[in-house]
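re: ur question from yesterday

yeah so i grabbed the chain u mentioned. its 175 aa long if i counted rite. heres the sequnce exactly as i have it in my notes:
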Amino acid sequence: ECESSDAIVYCRHCDFYFCDGCNEKAHPQLKSAQKHERIPASKNANIPMCRDHAASPLILFCSQCEQSVCIVCSQFGGHKGHQEKIVELKDIVEQTKSSVQSCITSSKNIVIRMEDLTQKVQQNVDGLDDHGARVESTIISTCDRLVSAIINRRGILIEKAKKCKHDVLENLQQY
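ran it thru and got these structure tokens back, copy pasting raw so excuse formatting
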């Protein structure tokens, strides 16, 4: 919680940054902390630091304010009264990861269903094309047969009409 110096050491066990003085004096005084693994702060650069408390990593999340906070801010700073809304940032990250993973899984399932539906639609389109070609062929062949039958019938009717005319003329000539 020292604000007089920049953090130079990060304790992996405490998940906290220490300035040189606190690293040498305060941290080792605790017997339980003597075996803690401490590394240079620069090697743990992936953890963002509090802009108000340079030695404090942002390891908490204030759900009331919807922002990452450090321990100092949560207990003594602007988030002091929000204790019921303070949770560990890693828990929020895990929840968010889980939510994102769930969305990804749902999206993948939707894509699979859409691909399946697209394939079925394409099969229906192909089937419709085939059916349309068969219907067209049937219409053409049926019309061709009907035209042929009409032409044949026309010929028969013309022959009958000629015969009838011939018979009538013959009958008339006999009188």
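noticed a couple things. Strands lie at 9-11, 16-18, 38-40, 60-62, 67-69, 86-88. also The two ends are 142 Å apart (CA to CA).
anyway ttyl
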